[in-house]
Write a structure and sequence with these properties.
Chain lengths: ~200, ~200
């Protein structure tokens, strides 16, 4: 009798990612340069057709050591959970040894994301253990080209902060938003679910 | 030069799941019986130590055909995103052929979850394409034993409904909550991140 469902889910990262990473130093010191790396990954992800124009990375906040880089793989992997933040956080947890990157014996980890997290990723960040969130483009920049970011509470930034996670917004916003605008102009796929149901 | 990060993330389901599923019919007709299956999976997941006391499954809403069963694997897989709903939705998307289970040419799919979705899973449900959400225990039942469900908007049910997803609550709540209470009493791991930071 065949198994009723698969025993594993395998998420394969695009082949270009490791080559891309080799072009950057192991440590990236300024927040601006960290965001530049992430926004460039978002641009490459869109232009290579491996997913939407979004990327995110986990760094050691103090040293700037790059821990992981995730990109949006929703369309190429066929899984709606595969936002860039989800990939970056999961890869980082694999690397740092567990589901809580906020343990007292660990360095402070930060998530740098090219666009403000959607409703799902907002929750994923809370559970990850990262202690800093650095954001490029705003939700409005993604919504302008048709992406749905979902409902978050008006005070979501202070809710994140109240849980010990520092939030820094608008880092390199202009460049981050440009990647979204270019994607919109090029006719890139806007992959919201439930088309026409709202 | 070794790759800077892994090329794949592999999520392995517990071995007991397919044996567990074989004890149930291919179609489960009443909502009550669907919830019973899910709550029993939550109980087994906790007692076997493969994760927290949570499970979720995707069914074809009309026929009751079981598409996927997910359980919480946060502690065993070391990934904070691996809530039962995330697994069930991802397995179902692998099986039904893509990131949007809400396409017009598809049957209506529903997610049956043993406990009210947390802030992250709330967003994941919006993006999945399921058109019905069936909930057993309430967030308060999970919070009573120490789990953090995260902030959702007060009107989250109507926000889900406004996106074409029907919400049905308190289905078999008593049995679902009992699994949580038993887990609490047995000293099961409460794995919230950022211990002591809030």
């Amino acid at each position: 009798m065949p198994p009723i469902q698969p025993d594993t889910i395998e998420i394969r990262l695009p082949e270009w990612i490791n080559d891309f990473l080799r072009a950057f130093p192991e440590h990236v010191h300024s927040l601006h340069d960290r965001m530049t790396l992430v926004v460039e990954a978002a641009r490459v992800n869109a232009s290579r057709g491996t997913g939407g124009p979004f990327a995110a990375a986990v760094f050691e906040a103090e040293s700037g050591k790059l821990i992981s880089l995730g990109v949006n793989l929703v369309t190429s992997a066929g899984l709606s959970i595969l936002h860039a933040e989800i990939l970056a956080l999961s890869l980082a947890q694999k690397k740092t040894g567990g589901y809580d990157m906020g343990r007292q014996d660990m360095p402070v980890y930060e998530l740098v994301t090219s666009t403000e997290p959607c409703a799902m990723c907002f929750g994923a960040i809370l559970w990850s253990g990262v202690r800093r969130l650095v954001i490029g483009a705003r939700s409005a920049d993604a919504e302008r080209i048709g992406f749905d970011e979902g409902p978050k509470r008006r005070n979501w930034k202070s809710e994140i902060a109240a849980r010990g996670i520092e939030v820094i917004c608008d880092v390199g916003r202009k460049g981050a938003a440009k990647v979204l605008q270019d994607y919109g102009k090029s006719g890139g796929k806007i992959y919201n679910s439930l088309h026409g149901k709202r």
